[in-house]
Structure formats: structure tokens, C-alpha cells
Amino acid sequence: MATFKVDTEQHGELNCWRITSRHAELLIAQQGAQILSYQPIGDEPLLWLSDQAIFRQGKSVRAGVPVCWPWFSNFQRNPDSVKAMYHGSEAPAHGLARGRDWQLLGVEEVGENLRIEFDLPEAQGQLPDWPHKVELRLLIELGEQLHVSLCSRNLGDASVTLSQALHSYFAVSDVRQVHVEGVEGLPYIETLEGWEQRTQQGKLGFASETDRIYLNAPERLAIVDPQWKRRITLHATGSRSAVIWNPWTDRARELPDMADDGWQRMLCVETANVWDDVVELKPGASHVLRVVIGREAL
Ligand code: TA6
């Protein structure tokens, strides 16, 4: 007998699935194959869903795990090898995949885990002004932890270069009280001040707007949240870069889909391939960008 449940739900203009397993509940939108929320049974949500989220076609929801692909962030800040792949005049921030409908390939139990797989068929030559053929899959495995894998396979006969991210929004008690473990001593790009390269001194806490690309990131990072007595753990593979973002007061006020004080309850720690860590896929080659999200009691 199946020990999971899949219900369809409509949120504004978006088709969604609420998937409940013995371990956790997930809400996933068809658009962007975007995980909108993740709540282990009997625990607080690990991912953050903005209470002013807008569920509109073509617009990424401020929540969960948006998939940024085939470029990350401001297109112009990408290396020439990534920019050369796209021929459009307007390049939306964070690429083309997060605002399009993906296809749900299936939900099945594999041992203790639930395996949910999505495909973006348009990535095989039909994305506007991005004329490359890549099989793009998002595999979500729900067990004691949440495993998210973004798999790209070059089906064409020329190399393809990508930047990308699993732009995860985590739920925190109060961002001013948390810190991130694992970035001490790392070089980072300070995007708020001319994209200068700096070095992280000591531990990373939050007292103002933060938008940084950490380079040479280790596989394990964690968000330590003493008030909620938990550590959110991230184990990344296929990535050497991590983006850490909190909009703080003024930026949050400018965002129509975030409450003025919403910045206090979220922190983005993004598993990425950006800056000097872009992915070059030779014909036939594959790359998997993967993060495993879990929690530990403090
Ligand atoms: O990943 C950090 C970042 O690129 C920030 O610069 C900020 O703009 C954020 O993502 C959100 O971007 P979005 O396009 O979703 O509003």
C-alpha cells in the first residue's frame, strides 16, 4: 500500500501538488518545478514561503527552491562563455527555467524515500533565444532529508556553458540571531560593492543587507538558529559556489511579494555554479548540481 499522498492544488494562476510522505510534506508548483514549502512531520518548516507570495504565470514565487538556469543572477554579470549561449535582447534575471511549466514525470516510492521527477522539455531546443539541446531534470527525493538534484545533459553537438543555482529560501526565527557555518576564511564576491573580491573574516552573521557569492565553498554549510534550537544543514555536490542573500529593510520594502518585515524570517543560502565555477558541458556530457537539506537539534 502506498504510504504517500499526492493532492493537486491551485494557488493563484499556478498548478501545484501537495505531496505528503511518512517523513514530510512538500508543496511544489508546476511552474519552475519549484518547491514552495517543505515541512518535516512534527517540525517547523525548513523552507520559507513568503506570506505575501504572488502566484502568477511567468513570475517566480518568493519561496522554497527556485531553479535558476541556464544563467544565474544578472545576465550581464555572467562570464562571456555563458552570455554567448543566449541571443535575446532582454535577459531575465536568474535565467529562463523558473518561469516556465515543467512536466511531472512521476512520483514513486524507492525504499524509504519518495522520488519525484520533473523535466523541462523546452530546454531541448525550444527556449526563446537559447538554441541548445539539454535534457534538464529536477529530481526531488524525500526521506529523512530533502535531496534536490538539478541534472543537465547536453544532447547537442556543441559545448554548452551554464551558470545555475538552487536558490533556496530557508525559514529562520530571526535572521539577526542566526549565523552561517562553513564560510569562515573563504573568498567572496561582494555584489553590493562593485562585485569586489573580499575574504570572510570570522563567522557570518547578519546586521545589514547581504548579497555575496562565496567561492571555493565546502560541501557542508549550516544555518545555526539558537532561538529555534536547530541547525539547518546543507550538503552540496557539483558546486563550488554558494550565494548568501538577505534583502534587509529597504530592499524588502521594494519587493511586492515580501512583507516589510519578511526579511527577518528568511535567509537564502544558494547552492550554485557561478562566477569562476560555471559548468561547461561537452556534447553528451552531464552535470548534477545537488543539495541535501536536513536539520539537527541544537
Ligand atoms: O541570489 C541573490 C539574488 O540574485 C539577489 O541579488 C536578489 O536579487 C535575489 O537573488 C532575488 O532575485 P529575484 O529575481 O528572485 O527577485
UniProtKB/TrEMBL annotation:
The keyword Hydrolase does not apply. Keywords: Isomerase. The keyword Isomerase applies. InterPro entries: Aldose_1/G6P_1-epimerase, G6P_1-epimerase, Gal_mutarotase_sf_dom, GH-type_carb-bd. It catalyses: alpha-D-glucose 6-phosphate = beta-D-glucose 6-phosphate. Its EC number is 5.1.3.15. This is Putative glucose-6-phosphate 1-epimerase.
